[in-house]
Amino acid sequence: MTSAFTPLTVLLAAMFTLAPVLIIGAPYESSMGLVQKIFYFHFASWMGMFAATIVCGVASARVLFQRRAASDITAVSAAELVVVFGIIGLITGPLWGRKAWGVWWTWDGRATSALVLWLIFVSYLLLRRFGGPGSERLSAAIGLFGMFNVPFVYWSVNLWRTLHPKTSVVPTLPVDMGLPLWFSTVAFLGLTTVLLALRTRLERRKSELDALHLAMDEDERE
Amino acid sequence: MPFLQAIWIVTRKDLLVEFRSREVVYTTLFFAVSVLLVFSFSFVREGVAIEGAAPGILWVAIAFSGTLALGRVFERERQNETLRGLLMSPAERPAVYLGKLLGILLLLFAVEIVIVPLVAFLFQAPLFRHPVLLLGLLTTGTLGFAAVGTLFSAMLVRTRSRDVLLPLLLYPITVPVMIAGVRGTAALLQADVDLPMARAWLSMIVFFDVVFVTLSLWTFEAVVAE
Amino acid sequence: MDFTSLSFVNVSRSYGRRWALSRVSFRCNAGEIVALLGANGAGKSTLISIAAALLTPSTGSVRYGDHESRSTPALRQRIGVVGHDLYLYPELSAKENLTFYGRLHSLPDVGARVEAALGRARLSDRGDDPVQSFSRGMRQRLTLERALLHDPRLLLLDEPFTGLDDASTSALVARLLELKTRGGIVLVATHDLEVVDGVVDRAVVLRDGRVVEMPGSGGSLRERFRLAGS
Prior knowledge:
- By secondary structure, chain A is mainly α.
- Chain A has seven helices and no strands.
- Chain A has helices at 5-25, 39-65, 69-101, 109-130, 135-160, 169-172, 175-220.
- The longest helix of chain A has 46 residues, at 175-220.
- The two termini of chain A are 34 Å apart.
- Mean pLDDT of chain A is 82; it is low at 163-173.
- Chain B has a two-stranded antiparallel sheet.
- Classes of the chains: A mainly alpha (222), B mainly alpha (226), C alpha/beta (230).
- Chains in contact: A-B, A-C, B-C.
- At the A-B interface, α4 and α5 of A face α6, α7, α8 and α9 of B.
């Protein structure tokens, strides 16, 4: 665990304490009122999920083509984070939608794309869980394909539906709305990093344990 | 041995094996027709098909039949470990992948030749108004689905729970193909036919195919190794 | 590419928390039949898979001749494997199975070779029958010919005598001796000590994934095997 870990965690704790203050201070959006404020964490958690997707994809490529076992640890940890942040996004989204537009799920472009990507990484985890030995390499293929699929999923779903506030919402938000949004995003990305570090440390300990068992097995036979 | 020749040797063997028993083509075809029948109970009201249902029904039938066919073809390679026999031969691994893929494609096209007219017939859908574009959507869409499916089936050959894992892994990843296939076909069936839209969907599938066939070729050797 | 020896250099292979093979080193030369002996689970099949370039060792390497090789088409062209599984398509006939493998190996005179192979397997009159109609012994004979069709330099066999009747066993032994005279390398993993006694040039004993010493002479193979590792 690098020495950066503790200061980073402290900083993150501070950011998450400050975030609600910023969010409360942000101006109300005219039509949706208070409910719109869930958007700050909703958007931020999608960004976290997105980042984890890329990390998983790159790590999966290394598992497959460079045969680095260590990358498998990163890949599975990142995949778990995709699923976790995805769940946050998939819960906050409908909660917002219900209040804002009266329906839980509207099949809008961005939400549907995120759901599909989430499903891909859920299938990654199911493969790890039920695929038996050797599923590290197989799930790496899923991680890699999942990452490459991101543009296609967005392209196809968005060509099909459009209802979500357009991407342009973010840059054209008045500064008061913009600051809490970017702040929350950075906080969530920081959270992604910290969780990834924790999770990979756990996996690394497990493989160190396996290596110790192997060494013991070796010694027993001497 | 020339690469193309290796591909053909593998495909020819698959066609020969299938020709002997015809098990996969008959069962897949029957399954596809059963799927259409089940859909018709949901989507036909008072003898007329619900508007816009036909494209979805067609592509879901293709996806379901495709999954079944993939499962059966690779189950055959699992018996007697013949997939390992292929990998032990001097044939290059990408050639083995493409050989299996071509065999699956031919099988699925054979099924589609039957179910496309059947869908047009049962659901009163004028599918043959723009045959070239429809053919384009069907070939590229089936290729995209089969390319990923062949890779996944090959990699799952020695995996526990492979029967349930294949659809679980395949369907989310092939969502873009399914969306494009369905919406592209729908654009051809609309009252005011939207040809540019259909072409847009077709080009998306083509991009998908290029990326994912390449990815599958790259990763095949790594994922089938033990 | 061609090579005249097969060497294992400190080959180890782990599965999770145990070593299936641990620092296995030995060499087989052209014109030798080497027996790989050991109880079930000793690691024989794993070692054969590694020699067949199907499995990579966790540490150590396999050398074909003087160079370390990854699994390339040229290398696979020189190796034949007779394993637990038949690698035969039950729906196809014996002739079709052999022709398929012959074509995969780019053999120039496939038809003639297939006929000769069927003859040696004593299956000439059943050449057009589907393999699923064959008895186990017949399938075993066919799969041996499949492995030898392309004149491999290295022949690897994993328990080839299981379930064979006496005639087929003698025929297989004869084929192995024939391959040895032609300068091939034969590595056969087996339990059937009586069968290979007197046929093999050397024997390597695996116990728990490790090579153990066995007396080179003095008594039958079975007696010496019992003394191994003590």
